[in-house]
Write a structure and sequence with these properties.
The protein is α/β, with parallel strands linked by helices and 450 residues long. The protein has ten helices and 35 strands.
């Protein structure tokens, strides 16, 4: 056995009954990313030799989210101790001095805290080190029974605790570092809990102590260790994570006009001197380059925004929106699967779907790409320096050459060559004094009725 090697087991097989959901609990998202992925990303920063995810049957989504890590099947959900046992084969012969066990429903855990837990395991040369916390409301968390000499003697689940034990503020976060040497012998000794009939991982603390082994607890920030068991917990974790993302963005040089009203995703990427106005929602897959301004009430997901672009207010960028330098997207403009080249503008009341807009082209107010014929999607390709008149409808597929102009109110069904004018509307009819005659007629009719 070599020293200072790490393995990790992530428990994700629980049914998550308290979520009242058809989706496995660990796939519920925080800041657009499944809880399980949050946990795995944190562990990955420590560079373990092997990480095994324990999933239940019929959880294909869990295996997908666990990629590239192996998934061990826990055929029946017989408790957290039983779940660790299910990882035995996938973990292989333990060559790690420390095995981390982390619950998949603890998404706010940071790599830094995991690192200090592993360091504590090694420094104490302990059989088990449990990560403890003191939450404002200890509620249903297991309580840590610490001896006067500072060692940990047991974890008592809330359901099994005496009224005195329930007074204890120090709780089990569920995260443990276990010495590789003792892992399987301890796991094998767990017997079903008399009350619930489940194999509790938490029982290894008392089992190790009964053998005279060194068991410790180290404490970390309760906010970071909140376990998500219900939708209420999920919302609380989301709020904490959003606050973290906002602080990180500001530290990276982003101005947030009203941080509490701005929602970010775990994977949002920012350049410098980005300014984000109030009430902006940024979904997954968004990258925003230097000096971009996002004005209030904009909703953005799956978009790449190059430097100096101006977005909003009230803009909606949907997946596949790719904006080059200096693009302007104004109010009530929606983009989907659309590329706008440098300096292109769509400032008012427009839908651009499955479109390409060339450099410096101007899309007039009320322009619509008719991209869907009820069966398939079609592309609209607009060249460079095109001037699209207000209220143009492009019936895709259609291609507009460089420098072309479309007349306001046109329905463009045919390709336009470069520098041509596309006019597709009926000619106006003007009848002098007809308005006067109309009003006189109406007044006379109204008078008769009275
Ligand atoms: C557990 C701890 C409790 C701790 C709390 C912290 C035990 C017995 N209790 O309680 O001391 O304070 O977490 O959040 O460990 N899982 C499986 N297979 C199973 C059962 C659970 O993989 O058979 C997984 C779940 O998917 C979940 C994790 O283990 O990710 C924890 O299970 P959960 O039911 O949430 O335990 P808690 O009641 O929260
Ligand atoms: Mg839990």
């Amino acid at each position: 056995m070599s020293f200072f090697r790490l393995a990790a087991v992530v428990l994700a097989a629980g049914k998550g009954t308290r979520m009242r959901s058809d989706l496995p609990k660990v796939l519920h998202r925080i800041a657009g990313k499944p809880m399980l992925a949050h946990v795995l990303d944190g562990i990955a920063e420590l560079g373990p030799d092997r990480t095994v995810v324990v999933a239940g049957p019929n959880m294909p989504g869990v295996a997908a989210a666990a990629q590239p890590h192996p998934v061990a099947l826990q055929a029946e959900q017989l408790g957290t101790g039983h779940a660790v046992a299910a990882a035995r084969e996938a973990l292989g012969a333990i060559t790690a001095d420390t095995v981390l066990v982390v619950y998949g429903d603890t998404p706010l855990l940071t790599a830094q805290t995991l690192r200090s837990l592993v360091a504590a395991r090694r420094a104490y040369d302990a059989a088990v080190v449990v990560l403890g916390m003191t939450p404002a409301d200890p509620g249903a968390y297991g309580r840590l029974i610490v001896d006067p000499d500072g060692t940990l003697s047991a974890i008592v689940e809330a359901a099994d605790a005496t009224p005195e034990q329930l007074q204890i503020g120090l709780c089990n976060s569920g995260v443990m570092a276990i010495a590789g040497t003792y892992l399987w012998s301890l796991i094998d000794q767990i017997v079903p809990n008399p009350l619930k009939g489940e194999y509790y991982l938490t029982d290894i603390v008392a089992l190790a102590r009964a053998q005279g082994l060194n068991v410790r607890a180290v404490e970390a920030d309760a906010d970071e260790l909140a376990g998500v068991n219900s939708r209420v917990d999920l919302a609380a974790a989301e709020a904490i994570f959003q606050q973290r993302l906002r602080v990180k963005a500001m530290e990276e040089g982003v101005t947030l006009s009203d941080p509490a009203s701005i929602y970010l995703s775990a994977d949002t990427r920012f350049g410098r001197d980005v300014v984000i106005g109030q009430n902006v929602v940024i979904g997954p897959g968004v990258s925003i380059a230097d000096r971009v301004e996002i004005k209030p009430f904009s909703h953005i997901e799956g978009a790449t925004i190059a430097s100096d672009a101006i977005i909003g207010p009230f803009a909606r960028l949907r997946p596949g929106s790719v904006l080059a330098e200096g693009v302007h997207i104004g109010n009530f403009v929606e983009l989907k699967n659309t590329t706008m080249a440098a300096g292109a503008k769509a400032n008012h009341l427009t839908y651009l779907g499955d479109a390409t807009v060339g450099p410096r082209s101007n899309i007039g107010a009320g322009t619509i790409t008719c991209n869907y014929d009820g069966f398939a999607k079609h592309r609209t390709t607009i060249g460079a320096d095109v001037f699209v008149g207000s209220d143009t409808a492009f019936v895709a597929p259609v291609t507009i050459g460089d420098g072309a102009i479309t007349a306001a109110g046109s329905v463009i069904t045919e390709d336009l060559p470069a520098n041509s004018l596309g006019l597709g509307r009926s000619r106006q009819v003007t009848k002098p004094e007809q308005a006067t005659r109309f009003r006189e007629n109406r007044r006379a009719t109204a008078g008769k009725k009275a």
